[in-house]
């Protein structure tokens, strides 16, 4: 059964999902100006702040525009979702009402599936859960191998039950009905499966039972599913880890751009019994009468794959400023498609991305024109171009396989990323390029698990205290050295990720800010077995699972990462930079992550002060 995450063409999609078609009553789209709809705003969206306005553009349909200047970091919208549902794996660790994580959730005694922070959250959710509870019990009994339906099915059902509760003429229901939809051919099978599962889950036996939800027969069910898949938004933690799905008709009105001016985030998860709220935060300055855009897909993908993703999922092609520039320019090289000049001059050339035998428009043009280094003008030999494109194709296929098996066979998936990353780096791909960046990010998940295990195996004594080296057994020294290798490898890998994301995203994008925060955290971890102060990192300390030494196109020094005070100083710089960007990503304060980063920066600064006082100290 399809989960909400599987409905997305991109794996790391974190933003709102919507597609609005041109208004059918536009008589002359070539000359019709963008105009506000005050009656619609007032009657249907009474919660819309005065700083925003819903307007209709001739080719893009409805969108949300600024009515006043907005600085980056400004929260332009904050509201609770209409309905939400946790993913199956999140049901046991997050409250089903407020989505807050808790180690002591109270399970519903009837269905034994849904959990809450306490009686307040349970009471607040009871109006919907009393309808959901018997449906969950029935489904679990009928499907012992898959006892819980997907988040998509449960969210769809909760939406229909909420419509029944609020009434067909309520503002709540009219807002949901106002969501526009698309039915891409590529999603036909998924939509059919969702519709079938929805009817089964709700226990609907005939068309007449759908009328109380405002649904007319099978066609109506198909329309409900299409509206959901087009407008659903990923529910995520403050670290933008997906934990479910929600619907918010107002937030879904933001149109798509691959270079968005705003993001949908959840800076803090609420305290028990409080409403969950999503926030739309500007990551760029916005001027009056300027449309505010979010992104529907993973925008680390190169131009051609972004277009495929949008077309297959939302049935449209993107012509945002970024896509328009990349589809026509032969000079600018997108960071997502960069390879280093073979002559080592520091310049780059464009690697056009292919998939399933189809060649991007840029690739077609490059067949007619010479591909040159942007710095020295060296004409890249056709053999080199073909060689790198073949490596990219192999890397892309390996990435898909690793993503597919990462949960069921993490060892094999880790082996795939370990083997492919050096191959792509040797071909000259930049850390920001596809599929190298995606492989680095997936690889880091496995490396962090490895690091946790290695650190947990360390002896209990303080490894950095004077004289420790002479008292430790050979086995303990080996464990400490292994942990140091794994930690250094994780730091190096995270630095490449942060560099790649910084080349792609603007300052303040949450994905970029969180990568910088993660780098600062890793750099601040106590070193289990560092080299003596003043020495360089021995080659033996660099783990075999990471590219060794750092490729020249990674932007890292061969001796990276540093040690001792230099490492702490870099940790502090990374955390301070992350804090500045988090204040943009999640609004003032940076949300829960910003609070954590501020606290960690304070501890690192104090530790660095001790190092400076002792002039480096001794191991």
List the helices and strands and how they pair.
Layout: E1 35-36, H1 38-44, E2 52-57, E3 61-66, E4 75-79, E5 83-86, E6 106-107, E7 115-116, H2 119-142, H3 151-166, H4 171-177, H5 188-202, H6 217-231, E8 233-236, E9 242-247, E10 255-256, E11 262-265, E12 278-282, E13 293-294, H7 303-314, H8 321-328, E14 338-340, E15 348-350, E16 354-355, E17 358-359, H9 361-368, H10 382-405, H11 410-426, H12 436-456, H13 468-471, H14 474-504, H15 510-523, H16 564-585, H17 591-613
Parallel strand pairs: 10-13
Antiparallel strand pairs: 1-2, 2-3, 4-12, 5-9, 6-7, 8-9, 11-12, 14-15, 16-17
Biased composition (Polar residues): 458-471
Region (Disordered): 458-479
Domain SET: 50-297
What does this entry show, briefly?
With 619 residues, the protein is mostly helical. It is built from 17 helices and 17 strands. Among the domains are: 151 residues, no CATH class; 152 residues, no CATH class.
Structure description:
The protein is mainly alpha-helical and 619 residues long. Among the domains are: 83-233, no CATH class; 457-461 and 473-619, no CATH class. Helices cover 43% and strands 10% of the residues. It contains 17 helices and 17 strands. It has a three-stranded antiparallel sheet with strand order 1-2-3. β8 and β9 (242-247) form a beta hairpin. α11 (410-426) crosses α12 (436-456), α12 (436-456) runs antiparallel to α14 and α15 (510-523) packs antiparallel against α16 (564-585). The longest helix is centred in the C-terminal third of the chain and has 31 residues, at 474-504. The protein is globular. Residues 4-36, 356-364 and 536-552 have low confidence and may be disordered.
């Amino acid at each position: 059964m399809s989960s909400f995450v599987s409905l997305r063409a991109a794996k790391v999609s974190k933003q709102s999902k919507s597609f609005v078609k041109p208004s059918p009553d536009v008589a002359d789209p070539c000359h019709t100006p963008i105009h506000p709809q005050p009656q619609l705003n007032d009657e249907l969206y009474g919660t819309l702040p005065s700083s925003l306005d819903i307007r209709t553009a001739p080719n893009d349909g409805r969108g949300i525009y600024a009515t006043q200047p907005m600085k980056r970091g400004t929260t332009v919208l904050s509201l609770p979702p209409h309905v939400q549902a946790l993913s199956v794996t999140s049901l046991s660790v997050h409250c089903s009402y407020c989505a807050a994580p808790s180690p002591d959730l109270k399970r519903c005694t009837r269905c034994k599936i849904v959990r809450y922070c306490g009686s307040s959250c349970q009471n607040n959710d009871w109006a919907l859960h009393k309808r959901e509870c018997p449906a969950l019990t029935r489904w679990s009994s009928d499907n012992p191998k898959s006892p819980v339906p997907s988040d998509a099915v449960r969210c769809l059902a909760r939406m229909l039950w909420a419509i029944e509760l609020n009434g067909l003429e309520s503002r709540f229901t009219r807002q949901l009905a106002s969501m526009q939809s698309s039915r891409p051919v590529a999603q036909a099978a998924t939509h059919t499966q969702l519709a079938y599962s929805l009817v089964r889950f709700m226990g609907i036996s005939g068309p007449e039972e759908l009328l109380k939800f405002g649904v007319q027969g099978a066609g109506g069910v198909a329309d409900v599913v299409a509206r959901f898949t087009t407008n659903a938004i990923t529910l995520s933690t403050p670290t933008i880890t997906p934990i479910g799905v929600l619907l918010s008709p107002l937030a879904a009105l933001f149109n798509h751009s691959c270079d968005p001016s705003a993001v949908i985030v959840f800076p803090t998860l609420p305290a028990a019994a409080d409403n969950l709220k999503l926030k739309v935060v500007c990551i760029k300055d916005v001027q009056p009468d300027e449309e505010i855009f979010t992104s529907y897909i993973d925008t680390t993908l190169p131009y051609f794959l972004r277009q495929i993703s949008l077309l297959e999922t939302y049935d449209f092609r993107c012509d945002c400023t970024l896509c328009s520039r990349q589809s026509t320019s032969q000079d600018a090289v997108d960071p997502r498609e960069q390879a280093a000049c073979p002559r080592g001059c520091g310049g780059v050339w464009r690697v056009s991305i292919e998939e399933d035998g189809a060649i991007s428009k840029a690739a077609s043009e490059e067949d007619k024109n010479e591909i040159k280094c942007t710095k020295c003008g060296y004409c890249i030999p056709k053999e080199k171009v073909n060689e790198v494109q073949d490596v990219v194709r192999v890397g892309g296929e390996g990435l898909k396989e690793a993503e597919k098996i990462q949960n069921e066979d993490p060892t094999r998936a880790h082996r795939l990323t370990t083997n492919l990353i050096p191959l792509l780096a040797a071909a000259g791909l930049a850390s920001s390029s596809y599929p190298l960046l995606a492989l680095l990010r997936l690889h880091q998940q496995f490396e962090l698990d490895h690091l946790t295990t290695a650190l947990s195996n360390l002896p209990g004594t303080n490894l950095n205290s004077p004289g420790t080296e002479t008292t430790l057994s050979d086995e303990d020294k080996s464990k400490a050295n292994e942990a140091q290798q794994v930690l250094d490898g994780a730091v190096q890998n995270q630095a490449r990720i942060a560099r790649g994301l910084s080349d792609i995203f603007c300052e303040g994008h949450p994905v970029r800010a969180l990568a910088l925060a993660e780098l600062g955290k890793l750099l601040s971890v106590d070193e289990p077995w560092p080299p003596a102060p003043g020495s360089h990192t021995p080659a033996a300390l660099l783990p075999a699972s990471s590219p060794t030494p750092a490729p020249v196109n990674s932007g890292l020094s061969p001796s990276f990462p540093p040690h001792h005070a230099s490492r702490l100083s870099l940790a502090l710089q990374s955390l301070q930079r992350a804090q500045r960007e988090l204040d943009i990503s999640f609004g003032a304060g940076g949300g829960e992550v910003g609070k954590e980063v501020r606290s960690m920066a304070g501890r690192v600064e104090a530790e660095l002060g001790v190092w400076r006082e002792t002039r480096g100290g001794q191991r």
